[in-house]
Amino acid sequence: MAPLQEGQYMIQTSSQSSARLNLQHYWVTESLGYLLHPSIPVAPDAKIADIATGTGAWPVSYSLHAAVPSSVQIDGFDVTDDMFPPADWLPSNVSLRTLDVLKPIPAELKGVYDVVCIRYFGVQVRNNDPSGVLANLVEMLKPGGYIQWVESDIYSQRVVKPTSCTLPESTALERHLAVWRRYLDASGLRYDWLAALPTHCIRHGMSEAHIYTPPSTPALRFTLTTAVLGAWEELSYNLDKDKEPDEFLGSGRELREKIGAFWREVEAGAALEQRFFVTVARK
Ligand SMILES: C[S@@+](CC[C@H](N)C(=O)[O-])C[C@H]1O[C@@H](n2cnc3c(N)ncnc32)[C@H](O)[C@@H]1O
């Protein structure tokens, strides 16, 4: 049996997940230098959707941006409202609601949006095939509308160390990444589809598609590493619910013990690095 079943979410939607996602939002926004790629035009009456919005960090940040008029409507959607702020605390042009983007899109959301954004949904894309979710995103767009898909490749993440680091050649983090890849393989979680996303977009009827691979920002490596270790800790609590230890990651307790060792290596200078992909496509 695969460690993760089709559609099963690998991590959690707890208050700890909210904190991690908000940290990740800081990391990705600072790393990219934009929330919306500069090639995407936004009219004063634009309607924008953010799919799998999590804490709603993207819609809230975008609405607070000085260059974005309050006439731009931003709707965030997620399969759960666990991490949404209270509705009456949201900016007036932001709404958040539940939507399972792996199921058929309700008629009232079809052809409505000028821009549809999605960020960090890769853990729900199985067997290198984003077709199901992509078809739904395209359906939500008006003709001529844009998709922005931001994703990191968590399969090929690697350990980096500063020149001053005295850690040995092979760290516990590096050994874990080898096991991690076997866990992802067994769960159908390869990230080869990311580089091919523009081709998938064209196949789904988009008229143009471009991919950008921004460089990582070394000063933000510890921020990213903190977010990744947090995600692994959430995964460890999911493993606690299984009767048997996972074939690759062991029990939840064993994974948390390993994470303790990773933290000591991080304190000694080790950090994680991930490749970014930003795909922009026009319907
Ligand atoms: C890694 S988080 C990313 C959150 C947000 N996009 C961000 O970048 O801060 C993935 C999100 O996908 C949501 N999710 C998982 N399965 C989903 C589905 N079938 N439909 C909609 N959202 C889903 C989770 O609840 C979670 O909030």
TrEMBL record:
SUPFAM superfamilies registered for this protein in UniProt: S-adenosyl-L-methionine-dependent methyltransferases
Top-level lineage group: Eukaryota
CDD domains, alphabetized: AdoMet_MTases (cd02440)
A Pfam entry, by short name: Ubie_methyltran
InterPro entries to which the protein is assigned, alphabetical: SAM-dependent_MTases_sf
Protein name: Methyltransferase domain-containing protein
Species in which this protein is naturally found: Aspergillus mulundensis
